[in-house]
Design brief:
two-stranded antiparallel sheet, alpha+beta, 7% strand, 370 residues
């Protein structure tokens, strides 16, 4: 199996569209179909073929409880709405007094969708299929190759029309098919349950805790507590305030990335807080607000760190002088290890470059350079 495929999957998860959950739903759906060992999977000329109706069904299962929830669980950014929201809400509202999610799925799998909601259900199927094909399938992989439709290939989709029986078989027969390279199939088959999370250490830990409590502690509550971090936004703000006070004594402050003098500045996390919840002083550097906004959750390249080397060293020296005990403790743990000599700055920078390279090359985070 090609190791590059795993790196590509990491990059797709981290880099590509974060404006909706479509990408996650597509990858989760394909993984679940493979893990189900569906008999509707076939192999031809280095590609693995699936019925799109299987994916439409998975999206119904994923989005129904989210959209039915009394608590708003955002699935799309800005002020837009999911492409299939209107159609899905009609179906959800129909089943509210008829048994809800379970009744809907029982009808789909066994009884058939009732006549009085069939047209609305077909509209939902059309919209889901259209959304899947024209959005995540079209865009996934474009950050790797620069081309659209580079991983998912869709066969011409037949029109979805009325049928005698509107049920699961109807989905299978009316939505066409798609394919992925066999390398991706192998990766999803081997590690899909870990990528999807069902067999992840985190989920298994939470599941064990729930079982040990005999159901008193729900899995989702256990996950929430396991994921709690000792570093909070409040801690970040405290560190930034301290940093600001020290910099204000300096007189002139320069943007670490552009070397331009700045009057009003942001205190930027070199490795973004969203990527690595690290609030160490060495990881906080002053930057021009506009540049910091462009960098956001991206990782500075090793080349960018070299370009900014002198200012990085300057601010490290400043923090070392003003907050010696804390600064040394933090930089020793994360960058220096036991390598504390006269060239500690270069040693730390080399380790920082190595960390950034790893995050870009192996974890799939987007590189950034000014």
């Amino acid at each position: 199996m090609n190791p590059q495929t795993f790196q590509n999957i990491s990059r797709i998860i981290e880099r590509e569209s974060k404006t909706t959950t479509y990408k996650f739903a597509l990858l989760r759906g394909v993984i679940d179909i493979i893990q189900d060992n569906s008999p509707f999977i076939s192999f031809k000329e280095g590609r693995v073929h699936f019925l799109t109706g299987l994916l439409v069904e998975k999206w119904m299962l994923y989005y129904y409880p989210i959209l039915e929830s009394e608590v708003l669980i955002p699935q799309i950014g800005a002020n837009t709405q999911l492409a299939f929201l209107v159609e899905f809400e009609i179906v959800i509202n129909y089943y509210k007094t008829r048994g809800g999610f379970s009744a809907f799925y029982n009808d789909l799998k066994s009884k058939g969708i009732p006549n009085d909601i069939q047209n609305d259900f077909i509209s939902l199927v059309r919209k889901l299929k259209q959304t899947i094909v024209k959005n995540p399938m079209h865009y996934i992989g474009s950050s790797l190759s620069g081309e659209y439709d580079s991983i998912f290939k869709v066969r011409p989709q037949p029109p979805i029309g009325k049928a005698k029986e509107v049920d699961f078989e109807y989905l299978l027969n009316s939505c066409g098919s798609f394919s992925i390279p066999v390398d991706y199939y192998d990766a999803f088959k081997l590690l899909g349950s870990f990528i999807g999370g069902n067999d992840s250490i985190l989920f298994k830990w939470a599941e064990f805790s729930s079982n040990a409590s005999k159901g008193d502690v729900k899995v989702e509550k256990a996950i929430h507590e396991i994921l709690r971090s000792p570093i909070t936004t409040r801690d970040v703000n405290e560190s930034k305030n301290m940093y600001n006070q020290i910099l204000q004594k300096e007189g002139e402050v320069r943007c670490v990335w552009s070397n331009l003098p700045i009057q009003i500045f942001d205190v930027d996390h070199v490795i973004p807080f969203s990527v690595w919840k690290n609030n160490d002083l060495w990881n906080l550097l002053p930057a021009k607000a506009a540049i910091n906004n462009r960098k956001r959750d991206k990782i500075p390249t090793p080349e960018q760190l070299i370009k900014s080397k002198e200012l990085i060293f300057h601010y490290w020296d400043l923090m070392n002088h003003n907050q010696n005990l804390r600064f040394n403790r933090e930089i020793k743990v994360t960058l220096l290890g036991s390598n504390q000599d006269k060239n500690w700055q270069q040693t730390a920078l080399t380790q920082l470059q190595s960390t950034c390279s790893h995050l870009i090359a192996h974890r799939g985070f987007e590189p950034w350079e000014l």
